[in-house]
Amino acid sequence: MIEAHTVDAWTRDADRTSIAFRDARIVGGLAAPLFLWLAGIGLALSAAATVRRTGSRRAAVETICRRGLEIFVLAFLFRIQAFVLSPGSELLTLFRVDILNIMGPAIVFAGLVWGFNATTRGLVVSYAAMTISIAMLTPVVRTSTLLDALPSWVNWYLRPAGQQTTFVAFPWAGFVFAGAATGALLAAVDHARDERRLQAVSATIGVALVALGFYTATLPSLYRQSSFWTSSPAYFAIRVGILMVAFAAIFVVERISHESAKARNERSRFRVLVFSWQIPLQTVGQSSLFVYWIHVELVYGYATWPIHNRLPLWGALAACAIFSGLMYAAVLLKERIGPWRPAVAGSNRPSTGLKEAT
Prior knowledge:
Helices cover about 70% and strands about 0% of the residues. The chain is mainly alpha-helical. Helix 3 (about 30-55) packs antiparallel against helix 4. The protein is built from 14 helices and no strands.
């Protein structure tokens, strides 16, 4: 997420036509799907934990829906902050549709779906169906004239509308539902062996989605108008597949490092090494909304105005690394001062080796 924004804001124009810049943008482009996907995982885990704690499915639904509404309100507070702190902001930008505007309502809908399904199978099927429907309807929604009669502010949430939309529900809300399907499966896992099997299946499905996406991209389009990089269901499938494979891969690395460390002395240098990379990632990840909230305005706002569009690509990447360290320090400082609520309330489920997403 930080890499995507710093490269976009700080790289000079001369480097923006290079292959390296294009590749950096593609890598950074995975941040938004991951942010939404993990929000979906978190809401399913949180709902399951609430049921275990209270015995009430209604309480779980209310908790998730309330959190979704909170994020939706935060989206407008974030725009107010951007209006004050970003150079050249116009009043209309207060209503720009950004990622939190999409995440909040998607979490609310996912919470309602969770309340209507009492079984894991029902949840997974429902979320998967919603994910597929959003992906397949995206090219249709973007070109349909039937939506022209809707108010402009409604269209801003459904399809791109110039400067007024950074994210839209089609297809971005689909990542929340895809994550919720994965989260529903994770919430049902009680044993480490089942968890390993689930991660293996997840990785297999992820590889299949990537392969399917690339294959279907070579076929004639089903739609009158569709762009691979923006509205194509094929590209959506590829990104979901990459997320699933990456999630399983990180699980494997975490398990290997954990088991290797257990086999050695608790105070050994090896244990320090294998966990040194995990602690910062977990700490920043658990404060993802806080990091998102403060870093965007620092990257695009007055604080870094002297380097906007002035650094070579390598300089922007170096500055990104330094800036990421500063964000980690900010999270540590925040933890000392007081707690910040995560994007989706976490779960108190007993650990089976799973590091639950928040």
